[in-house]
Design a protein that fits this description.
Helix content is 28%, strand content 42%. The chain has a seven-stranded antiparallel β-sheet. The protein is built from three helices and seven strands. It has one domain: Alpha-D-Glucose-1,6-Bisphosphate, Chain A, domain 4. By secondary structure, it is an alpha+beta fold.
Length: 155
């Protein structure tokens, strides 16, 4: 079994990268589209910093456990984040968003990469973790697409 895992999904959004990038590079805006940032009455979120590199969101309680996500870098077509989990298990993962022009739109890819810990490997014996993670990435990308294309249609 591999020592690392990588889960990637992508979607074509009918909007320019320049209009999508601010949605990704601001952790407070993730509540509009990311299944990992949905408001949860049992969770507490603490934001720090302005949108862009250096911004972070610490969270605890609720369905997502406890940890911190931090934006490491923002470039016109790439955003890199680090997710350090404390609960339900300790893990450090990289999150990448890539925005590439495609036709009149933008191909947005969302990837999660990390160490395949012993717990990850054991859970993977009973459950398809890549598919489970992939479904959440697909859901988030579809919601981001609807949000961006809805704004564009309203303009």
């Amino acid at each position: 079994m591999a020592s690392q895992f990588r889960c990637t999904r992508s979607i074509l959004i009918d909007a320019p990268a320049a209009s999508i990038l601010p949605e990704i590079a601001d952790l407070e805006r993730h509540v509009l589209w990311s299944p990992f940032s949905r408001p949860d009455p049992k969770s507490r979120d603490f934001y720090s910093g302005a949108p862009g590199a250096g911004q972070s969101r610490a969270f605890e309680g609720g369905q997502n456990g406890a940890g911190i996500i931090r934006i490491e870098s923002v470039e016109p077509h790439h955003v890199l984040m680090r997710l350090d989990m404390r609960k339900p298990m300790k893990a450090s993962n990289l999150i990448e968003f890539t925005l590439l022009p495609e036709g009149d739109g933008t191909r947005v890819s969302w990837s999660l990469t990390g160490q395949a810990t012993l717990i990850w490997r054991l859970v993977s014996l009973f459950m398809d973790c890549e598919a489970m993670c992939g479904r959440q990435l697909e859901e988030g990308l579809a919601t981001l697409k609807a949000e961006m294309e809805g704004r564009r249609a309203a303009a």
